[in-house]
Every structure is written in C-alpha cells, then in structure tokens.
Amino acid sequence: MLRRRFAVTLLGLALVAGCSSTEHTPEKTPAEALAAARASLAKATSVHLVLASTEVPAGQNGVTAGDGDGEFSATEAKFAGTITGTVNGLTGNIAIICVGDQAWWKLFTPDYTPADLASVNAPNPCTLFHPETGIASLVAATTDPVAKGQTRSGKDVVTSYAGKLPGAPISELLHLGDGTGTYDVTFGITDAGELRQATMTGPFFAGATSTYTLTLSNYGKAVTITAPQ
C-alpha cells in the first residue's frame, strides 16, 4: 500500500512539472516588449499623462511640464489639463483644452479663449494622443533596446528598456530640440504591455542636456472632454 501511494505521488509530481513546463510563457525580447507597448497605445481609448522635466536652462522657451487627460483618436484626439511653459522669459501654468486642431486656454483670463499655439511655437497636446504618430512614435523610433531590470512606477512593477531615440519625433511632438540630435530613452513597461513611463535625456535645448519624463496611468478610464462654450 505504501509503495502504491509513493508511486502515485511521484506520478502526480511528474504531471505537475510537465504542465508547468508546457504552460511557461517565455519572457519577451526588448523588441517584442516595445511592440506590445505600441499595440497597447494603439488600442487605448484614454490615458492620464504627466510631463516633468529637469536640467532645463533658465529662460528657455518651451514646455516644461504638463498634467491632464487625453483621448486617443486618429482623427480628433482630445486633451484637458494644464501645461507649464516659458515664452519670452515668462513662465506660467496654463489651463488648456484641445479638441483636434483647435485649442482654448486660460491665458490671464478667468474663461477659456481660443489659443493660437503656433504663434508661440507651443505644441498641441492632442498630437500626443494619435494612436500611431503620438506617444507611440517615440517607442517605434527607438533603436537598440536592451532590458535593464525591473523597477516600480507608482503601484506598478515595470521592466525598464533602454535605447536610443532620434530627435525628429521629439521635435514634432514637443517642439523641442532641432530634430537632429540623439537621445537616451528608457521605457517602463508592465507585463501586460502597457507603457507606464518614458524618460528621455538629450539636447532638448542648445548647449544643454535635459531630461523629460512622460508618465502614463489610468488606461481606458472614462473621461469627458468637450470644447468650451
């Protein structure tokens, strides 16, 4: 009887081991992880975004921070939140709403007024929320990605992937840099393939090395963004 029980136990352990090896999912390569992050952005409906920066030269024109919600769309992306930037030496926090190519801001007024972003060379935040040419383009343009281990981003554990990023997509999305430099970039990606963080370091401004970080959260959380009345 004891021999029979022992044999059954060994058989059970063998079956468990066999199932474990069969069901094991191999780790993604860096290229596969970045592709998964692009796919998650392509199918996302909305996300909360925080932009932060460090080592920005004083008095330089450009956006330095942002915080708000965005809706992804290939035809009419939307954003509502605040941006911080400097124009002609003046730095301020500005509430802004963008719907497609149109934008409204509270610039020294209690109410939203139409914003001419091009006149101050400010980026339209909506461009970040195009499924392919927005944030996803930063991932797509990255070369030579390598895994750098796991870290924590808020409540999420992410795997970090480092690579090189050409300046063109940064210039197009943030209106920073001359579009020709090369940046060091590190992405934080969850096991589910969601991009949680993108940290870029390089020549955002002539003669300086600055760092900009995009942090994403609340994938798919319902938001309501409408043009001001």
TrEMBL record:
Main location, first listed in the record: other
Top-rank taxon, per record: Bacteria
Any single Pfam family the record assigns to this protein: LppX_LprAFG
CDD domains assigned to the protein according to its UniProt record, in alphabetical order: LppX-like
One annotated Gene Ontology cellular component of this protein: cell envelope
Keyword field: Cell membrane, Membrane, Signal
Stored SUPFAM superfamilies: Prokaryotic lipoproteins and lipoprotein localization factors
Signal peptide residue numbers: 1-25
Protein's cellular compartments: Cell envelope
Protein family according to the UniProt entry: Belongs to the LppX/LprAFG lipoprotein family.
Name this protein carries in UniProt: LppX_LprAFG lipoprotein
Organism: Phycicoccus elongatus Lp2
